[in-house]
Specification:
Length: 127
């Protein structure tokens, strides 16, 4: 298992930016494909973004494409989600997830493809 801890959430106004971080302690994320998911109030958890283990492949949900950017720093064992131009509909608990994928450079959109999950960080966007 890979213990994951998300941080960076908060209460912000529409239009501003936030950067979420997902860090692993005690285990390297180097060989893991990573994903960000979110669950809004009264909604099912949904895919947001994913990045391959080496960072060369990324994938985004249509709802965030062009506004959110996923990246990773394997030396720091951390994955990031830069969220720009936030909208009230982005309000959700954001979760990061890890899937051991090396040597595949695939990204993954389905929850059941991931092995480990963080506890989530709340993002609230006011209008």
């Amino acid at each position: 298992q890979v213990p994951l801890v998300e941080s960076g959430g908060g209460l912000v106004q529409a239009g501003v930016s936030l950067r979420l971080s997902c860090a692993a302690s005690g285990r390297t994320l180097r060989f893991y494909s990573m994903g960000w998911f979110r669950q809004g109030p009264g909604k099912e958890r949904e895919f947001v973004a994913a990045i391959s283990w080496g960072g060369g492949s990324t994938d985004y949900a249509d709802s965030v494409k062009g506004r959110f950017t996923i990246s990773r720093d394997n030396a720091k064992n951390t994955v990031y989600l830069q969220m720009n131009s936030l909208k009230p509909e982005d309000t959700a608990v954001y979760y990061c997830a890890a899937k051991r994928a090396y040597p595949s450079s695939n990204t993954y959109r389905k929850e059941d493809e991931y092995d480990d999950w963080g506890q989530g960080t709340q993002v609230t966007v006011s209008s």
